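On to my pick:
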Amino acid sequence: MNTTIPVEIATIFLQFATIFTKPVWSHAQILLVGAILTTGKRTITSVLAVMGLSKEEHFQNYHRVLNRAVWSNLEASRVLLIMLVTMFVPSGPIILGIDDTIERRKGHKIKARGIYRDPVRSSHGHFVKVSGLRWLVMMLLVEIPWAKRVWALPFLTALAPSERYSQQHNRRHKTLTDWARQMMLQVKRWLPTRELVVVADSSFAALELLDTVSKRSQGKRKKKDMLICWGNPVV
């Protein structure tokens, strides 16, 4: 199969090229296109199959992009955010959503799993537990004209292990609000001149998080350039 990237897509992908070395970048582009085209679980095997590379002899090179190659996923998040903001919110306040999600994963190599409340199957009177990885996701909330609704466009994720996992590995445990505060300040460093409005649900209604935003808004410029609101970030 011809795996040449279309010019329209390659123009967008090229903005990420500086993050990777040249050999890794050639494989990363294939994984990016394959991840977009793949339905169901986006495993390396599925990606290579949809790209016509299921019989690739050196398939391990594609696995190494994720488990051995040296590149900064934080820098990739920054590039993606700048692209999204430039396209959808060139001026005015930037509205962000932050929420956690549980990825149901099994296997002896999945070390950071924990037992959490299942937000989908649980209710006020019924508590359902689920085992998996807890991710905290920050999204850009923008209104898509042709869709006539607001879409949440993820650009930054952080793994938030359970307290038990942190204790077992002698690590300082970070709560969801700790991770949220760190992510919010990171985005502010990326966009120092823009006003940010962060929407979160009640699980992030903590005084520590509000204090961080308050201190940030009372800086040297005396300008409220960061605001947090509580609601439903996923529209």
Summary: The two ends are 39 Å apart (CA to CA).
